[in-house]
Amino acid sequence: LMAEKGGYKHFMLKEIFEQPRAVRDTIAGRLREEQGDVYLEDLKLTDEELRGIDRICIIACGTSWHAALVGKFLLEEHCRLPVEVDIASEFRYRNPVVNDRTLMVLISQSGETADTLAAMREGKARGAKNIAICNVVDSSIAREAAGVVYTHAGPEIGVASTKAFVTQLVALYLFTIRLGRALGTMDQAKGRAMIGELVKIPALIEKTLEMNDTVEKVARRYMNARDFLYLGRGICYPIALEGALKLKEISYIHAEGYPAGEMKHGPIALIDENMPVVVLVPKNSTYEKVLSNMEEVIARGGRVIAICSAGDDGVTRKAEETLEVPSDGEELATILLSVPLQLLAYHVAVLKGTDVDQPRNLAKSVTVE
Ligand code: G6P
């Protein structure tokens, strides 16, 4: 079994460390760097058909839903189409407004989640076009969808999704370039620049993974907390949700993700000297705003674990703990910020002695309603 785990103690840790390779595989053979475009072999939608879309609905469950929320930012920013994101079990029962000009994007690691499959069928019955972002080749959703973007992360065994999530973000980024180029909302130079950023990511994940031992020490100091709060803004908000979900799933500590700017409307009441608050504060367009949210937490005695850009002394001076990721970009920083959150959840769970790869009550894929 140790051999199956490649020498790692758990599949989850192995899968976290596989992420540079997984991302390389997601990208492999798909870049058209000269043209500033990407080629998605099983997308099945022509430029003409892509231009007929006036709205996108991204549907998923669990971690895949968090990837969907990141996808909304990417697609709205670069393709200028309205994007709605919904949880599959909500979408399928609410008489959704979709028609033949709607593109539904189903995101599912397993391709077998019952609610996501049903939501896809519901949309199809109303004439919507669809594509799936799946990891498992020939899974039910991949087979039934009109087109597929495979993530090629390789088999994911740990119930808590890690490399599948990160490669879903990459797949969404690739699809954004493809759609933006087809619609003409993204020019060749922009496409090239985005590809240029993407190809740097595997090496940057490798660099980020070097903080593993540091994160373990942080985990040791906070493992006895009863609750955790995770804060992020904009494209980092879904990453905060995902960080909180990872901790809940495997350590059984209650954790909540919140948009940093919304903290004053409720969660701020929870903050005291026992409350660890993980703040995602990379150098991006909302940096100053998040910094002031972080200061509000500190002023109320909260214990801030900041995840920030490398070399950010401003944050380091203020936060109790700082974990630095090697990027100050906006969109792909989401991938690098995810790594310390995965490692934090992992180490807290290991220290608490839970069954990391098979947490109680959870299933890798939920094929019943
Ligand atoms: C289960 C798993 C999660 C996963 C979710 C959606 O709850 O435990 O890790 O995110 O299903 O699964 P899917 O395969 O559709 O991405």
Write the layout of secondary structure elements.
Blueprint: H1 11-17, H2 19-27, E1 31-32, E2 37-38, H3 47-51, E3 55-60, H4 62-79, E4 83-87, H5 88-91, E5 102-108, H6 114-125, E6 129-134, H7 140-144, E7 147-150, H8 163-183, H9 188-199, H10 201-209, H11 212-222, E8 227-232, H12 237-251, E9 254-259, E10 276-281, H13 287-299, E11 303-309, H14 313-318, E12 321-325, H15 333-352
Parallel strand pairs: 3-4, 3-5, 5-6, 6-7, 8-9, 8-10, 10-11, 11-12
Antiparallel strand pairs: 1-2
Helix pairs in contact: 2-8, 2-10, 4-8, 4-12, 8-9, 10-15, 11-15, 12-15
Bound molecules: 6-O-phosphono-alpha-D-glucopyranose.
Written overview of the protein:
The chain is α/β, with parallel strands linked by helices and 369 residues long. 45% of the residues lie in helices and 17% in strands. The protein is built from 15 helices and twelve strands. The strands form three sheets. Strands 4-3-5-6-7 form a five-stranded parallel β-sheet, with helices on both faces. It has a five-stranded parallel β-sheet with strand order 9-8-10-11-12, sandwiched between helices. Helix 2 (19-27) packs antiparallel against helix 10 (201-209), helix 10 runs parallel beside helix 15 and helix 11 (212-222) crosses helix 15 (333-352). The longest helix has 21 residues, at 163-183. It is globular, with a radius of gyration of 20 Å. The two termini are 32 Å apart. Residues 61-64, 108-110, 113, 116, 159, 161, 362-366 line the site of 6-O-phosphono-alpha-D-glucopyranose. One of its GO terms (biological process) is protein N-linked glycosylation. It catalyses: D-fructose 6-phosphate + L-glutamine = D-glucosamine 6-phosphate + L-glutamate. It is an enzyme of class 2 (transferase). It is found in: Cytoplasm. Its main location: cytoplasm.
